[in-house]
Amino acid sequence: MSLFITTLKQRRQKLAQLIDIPVILWSGKAPSRNFRANRYPFRASSHFLYFAGISLENAVIRLENGQLELFIDDPAPESTLWHGETPTRDAIAAIIGADRAYPLEELLPKTAHAATIGVQDLATYQQQQNILNRPIFPSNAPKEIDLTLAQAIVTLRLTHDQEAIAQIRKSVKVSIEAHKIGMKSTALATTEAQVRGTMEGVIMAHNMSCAYGSIVTVHGEVLHNEEYHHPLQQGDLLLADVGAETQLGWASDITRTWPVGGKFSATQRDIYDIVLAAHDNCIEAMKPGVEYREIHLLGARIIAEGLVNLGILRGNPDNLVEKDAHALFFPHGIGHLLGLDVHDMEDLGDLAGYETRRHRSDRFGLEYLRLDRPLASGMVVTIEPGFYQVPAILNDSQRREKYQNDVNWEKLAQFADVRGIRIEDDVLVTETGTEVLTIDLPTQATEIERLC
Amino acid sequence: MSLFITTLKQRRQKLAQLIDIPVILWSGKAPSRNFRANRYPFRASSHFLYFAGISLENAVIRLENGQLELFIDDPAPESTLWHGETPTRDAIAAIIGADRAYPLEELLPKTAHAATIGVQDLATYQQQQNILNRPIFPSNAPKEIDLTLAQAIVTLRLTHDQEAIAQIRKSVKVSIEAHKIGMKSTALATTEAQVRGTMEGVIMAHNMSCAYGSIVTVHGEVLHNEEYHHPLQQGDLLLADVGAETQLGWASDITRTWPVGGKFSATQRDIYDIVLAAHDNCIEAMKPGVEYREIHLLGARIIAEGLVNLGILRGNPDNLVEKDAHALFFPHGIGHLLGLDVHDMEDLGDLAGYETRRHRSDRFGLEYLRLDRPLASGMVVTIEPGFYQVPAILNDSQRREKYQNDVNWEKLAQFADVRGIRIEDDVLVTETGTEVLTIDLPTQATEIERLC
């Protein structure tokens, strides 16, 4: 039996050890774009992918006692003309180690008392409710047996087996190549869009897709900037948050920030080195048992300390973090889970990210923290500290008032050429510490300059 | 007033001249991919784009008497952190020449007796039904006032105004660059995916998107092949059907077929020249008043004639077309409407493609014809003849039986290195004939070889 099938069977067995209800998971269908046949690229539900292993459109699996039953229709004869020969149900069943395989119509009699997770594709979500003949709450608010299932899946997917880690490594490798070529291409580029095209072109060339909408921008202070029309100008920093996803669905998530002109200015380098210090110290502090929230607060403290040393913040770093002054410049969390989803299992709301009985803080410095659990061997998380000058934050009159004496606004004005810097790596928690999966992509400012 | 706004106001006026019912059109929302916040790129409904002019997510327009009312919410204050400063409702209203603008909640009291078209995005489609408080049939089967509206929109969108043609030209220009760079990159590429990455990278570099899922394949005989994993081998033909879409939503659609090794073999060139002859003769024959179906049949006859000359088919070309023998090798239509959608208005089923009271033929050679109308000045259509050796067709025992004496199967076997060839251009019907919008991309085999 292949390692692939062995792993899949182990995942199914482990689920059976956690819950004894039958489980039915739908893969979903590709939504249409501007007309029915013009569809977005299909992406199977991650929970389906975890147990089925490969991407299959309009398929269903039923899991019980560690066994997997596959429900999928053989391709219609006329589909061969348009889509070529595609594997039969039986061939697919063999590839994924299904115990039995049936056409979709045979699912209905096997649905009694089954738990499920609502998929994102609305057409399939409605089908789920029709076939199970009961309301299914959205995946971020599952109820009763569906909640039990979601919790069991979280338990499994929180830490990764070797096959999963191998997939993430594959994805990381391609993302690193995209970033390196992106850096090199910047000298000849005149717009953000050109660098994005080069980077995503690399990902496509490896027959992978993007795990999320790429951010490639000289306005890094817009955290989820997905526009690419700005011209590149000497003196700008380019922030690129771009990650590949393998064909089996596993993600990577990397951010680098590099100077458009190939050299950081003194002010850019000062801030860059603070963000890098936070990045390095956070990774250094990670090991099983350590609270991720403490890693976040450590990153915040190092950023605060660095900004005190530069004269941008005033006071004691610990006190500044306690009053969330760091969040003026670092308003997001230090990272998140990574796996089949770039924010792994975020479809389940905070069920995966937050340990039972923990909830999001309403503190300005903590509300966007996506992960609040003790680290465990086999987890993969991102570490992505940043520094941003967000006008909506820094020009907010209430905040200016509150932090009036903590910020040296004149000093800050000298750093106007630093709009946004983020350095993001993917980190595997090992039994003794960590392994930085993205280690082959440099982080040091001097090395970044060499790659540009 | 800008030409852009003038054109939009003309479109709204023309609609008012055709129908006097109020019209409400939704732009839609981006569907989610694997979790809610990880979304596919947003694409506004084409009917919305036609009258509103620009892409606006979660927006509604109400058209009556040539006036446009815009309904859209101002961005939430917290969205500035994640998405930056975005234009206010009033700024958007000025850009698109809206007569009045309101928040979304003010739509409800203005919905009485309004017609609409169901959008592809299911969440919005449900909202349409809730807000209009009546069932809305899917866009390919509109009923009553919605059918009246759809027919009026077809009347307008069938022929393009100057702004629309300018947009298609922009899109064409980028697609041509993508094809040229794709051809040049093939010598160094080892997989289909690499050429695809290069071509789509060019489109992205111009801050455009793909109008449809790219086909870049050495298996051109799979008509809608959207896999890219095959290696490129000397002797293969690479078929690339790749088209850009402008930011305002206007499409282009170009196919070229080139030799991986830079030189067509004698057999490939023989077939290539037949497909090209069909392409050239079809375009030559086009002018206002000519039936597109006749253009299709002309293409079929030239392919049949060419195959007779090569000794692959036997008999009289006209008779061969009459019995659909050409369709063994050219099993799709000669082309389709092009505009805001790559198959323009295909969301309305055959309402746009087929003249009133005409319906799809069940003839093997005609069933996939997407357009059956007399040509008119201002229409843009594709002309895309092809030759394919589709195993599902050629190995079908009924067809082999039926066409046993029409095909010289031994002769055909000599052309095994021609799996699929298609040559596709975008053609504007003018008052006196045509203008090939894609003229800057060569079609001659020798010129293609020079670009490789």
TrEMBL record, chains A, B:
PROSITE patterns: PROLINE_PEPTIDASE (PS00491). InterPro entries: Aminopep_P_N (IPR007865), Creatin/AminoP/Spt16_N (IPR029149), Creatinase/aminopeptidase-like (IPR036005), Pept_M24 (IPR000994), Peptidase_M24B_aminopep-P_CS (IPR001131), X-Pro_dipept-like (IPR052433). One of its GO terms (biological process) is proteolysis. Its EC number is 3.4.11.9. Its cofactor is Mn(2+). It comes from the Bacteria. GO terms for molecular function: manganese ion binding; metalloaminopeptidase activity. It is an enzyme of class 3 (hydrolase). Gene3D superfamilies: Creatinase/methionine aminopeptidase superfamily, Creatinase/prolidase N-terminal domain. It catalyses: Release of any N-terminal amino acid, including proline, that is linked to proline, even from a dipeptide or tripeptide. Residues 3-133 form the Aminopeptidase P N-terminal domain. It holds the Pfam family Peptidase_M24. Keywords: Hydrolase, Manganese, Metal-binding. One of its GO terms (cellular component) is cytosol. Belongs to the peptidase M24B family. This is Xaa-Pro aminopeptidase. The lineage of its organism: Bacteria, Bacillati, Cyanobacteriota, Cyanophyceae, Oscillatoriophycideae.
